[in-house]
Amino acid sequence: MNNVPQHVSIIMDGNGRWAKARGKERIYGHFEGVESVRACTEAAVEDGVKYLSLYAFSEENWNRPKEEVSTLMELMMESIRKELSTMMDNGVRFVVLGNRARLSDKLNAAIDGMMEQTASNDRMTLIVFLSYSGKWDIMQAMKKAAATLSPEEFQNMEAADFERYLVTAGIPDPDLLIRTSGEERISNYLLWQSAYTEFVFSPVLWPDFRKDEFRAALREYSSRDRRYGKVK
Ligand code: FPP
């Protein structure tokens, strides 16, 4: 494939509807969604994508029923543990970004272990956004900048300086953002970082979004003409 995006990001949506359509509990959709995570990660590695990021849990998702939240957290911890050897075999570096203070000590320890062990893998970086929201990120960056810089430095700050305080510092902005399940909105995701991102909306529910759908989105991306506000 030509013109492979360097960074692909996905808003994985539609697990609940997928389960409901089968007369099952929402969590069943999340379980099946993990299979799509695996499939898309594999396809991304195979196709030469350097960064794949996934919106797994938003700051707003904490307001879901307690039971769904705790099962989702357990599911993520279990998946992380299970996939370690596959990530090592495939050169995948694992990174979690978000408001880590809201995660349990147990989950944070599992994440830290996984991040340390995969830190020097360099074929692809898999980023899981957990307890993340775009406004939260911009706010925490602003506070960090204010606490670090002198008033004069703060006043003179440019966009490229400010970006260093976002949790995504050092990670290129997404070239392609995919949202599944037919919804067409950003939902407080990478607000700053998606300034020039190409969007692809798929009607397919996340548990059904596998390699073929992922590659169709990559093909759609390769046909786009990115101008970054300039005239070509
Ligand atoms: C959106 O569907 C999906 C989520 C909020 C959870 C996504 C998480 C996973 C698939 C597990 C990820 C695991 C790893 C290891 C990254 P929804 O529940 O909002 O669906 P609905 O819109 O149909 O209700």
Q: Helix and strand string, N-terminal first?
A: EHHEHEHEHHHEEH
Query: Quick check: average pLDDT?
Result: 96
Oligomer: single chain
User: What's the alpha carbon Rg, rounded to whole Å?
Assistant: 18 Å
Overall 3D form: globular
Q: Report the span from N to C terminus.
A: 24 Å
Question: Helix content range of the residues, please?
Answer: 40-55%
List bound small molecules. farnesyl diphosphate
Main sheet makeup: 6 strands, parallel
Largest beta sheet: what is the strand line-up?
A: 3-4-2-1-5-6
Give the count of helical stretches: 8
Query: Helix/strand-derived class?
Result: alpha/beta
Strand content of the residues, in percent?
Answer: 15-25%
The overall strand count is: 6
